[in-house]
Structures are given as C-alpha cells and as structure tokens.
Amino acid sequence: MQRMRESLPGGKRLWLRSTRQRRKHEIYDTPRIQTRMRIHLAGTRMSLGEADILEYYLRDLPFVEDVKVFERTGDAIVKYNREADHRERLLDALCGFSYQDEYALSLVP
User: What tens digit of pLDDT does each residue of 25-59 get?
Assistant: First the structure.
C-alpha cells in the first residue's frame, strides 16, 4: 500500500491511498493525525484488575484518544494525538506507571 499526502487550498490535508490490486484511490480528510503505540508490559499475563488499572490510567491522560488492553498477552494499544511532545509525555507516563500507585487505583470505579 502506498500513501501520499496532498495539500489543498485552505490548509486542509488529504491522504491518498492506493493499492496495486484494486487500482482504486480513496481520499479522506484527516483533521488531526493520530498515532498508535503498542506496548508490552513486563510479565506474561495481567489479571483483569491490573488491565483495568492500566486502561483507566492511560485514558486519564489528556492527549490519549483511545486505549485497548489485552490481558492475556500483557499488551496495550494506545492511540494518541501526534502534536508537540505527546509521544515523550506518553513514554514518561508509562515509565512512572505502577499497579500499586494510589492515583492509578483511585481512577478505577
């Protein structure tokens, strides 16, 4: 798959996606660019409680758009808005995360 970015008048950006098999082009507007990060936590599995703590902790960050946590594999997929230093702030938040942190525990209903 090949992706190309085109600029239009008025400051809008469009993404052009093409595939070789279909020879088709899809154009869609992207007002904000989101980025995904897949992380793997230490250990093989998480309990459901630990998965909930991680999910609510990450959802509380202001720049995080969506979170999916997979307790069987100990993975999480985080979609965040790619502006300024959000990637570094996300990495700092993950480095400071702990299942025993009182703040993280207080976020889970």
Answer: 444 444 555 688 898 887 778 899 999 999 999 99
Structural contact between residues 2 and 18, judged by C-beta atoms closer than 8 angstroms: yes
Q: Does 17 or 83 have the greater pLDDT score?
A: 83
What backbone torsions phi and psi does residue 60 show, to the nearest 5 degrees?
-75, -20
Q: Is 60 exposed, middle or buried (0-12, 13-18, 19+ CB in 10 A)?
A: middle
As to burial, measured by CB atoms within 10 angstroms (0-12 exposed, 13-18 middle, 19+ buried), residue 109 is exposed
CB 78 within 8 A of CB 36: yes
Instruction: Characterize the bridge pairing of strands 25-29 and 34-40.
Output: unpaired
Contact at 8 Å (CB) between 82 and 30? no
Is 0.70 surpassed by the pTM of this model?
A: no
Give yes or no for residue 80 having a pLDDT over 50. Answer: yes
> What is the three-class DSSP state of 67?
strand
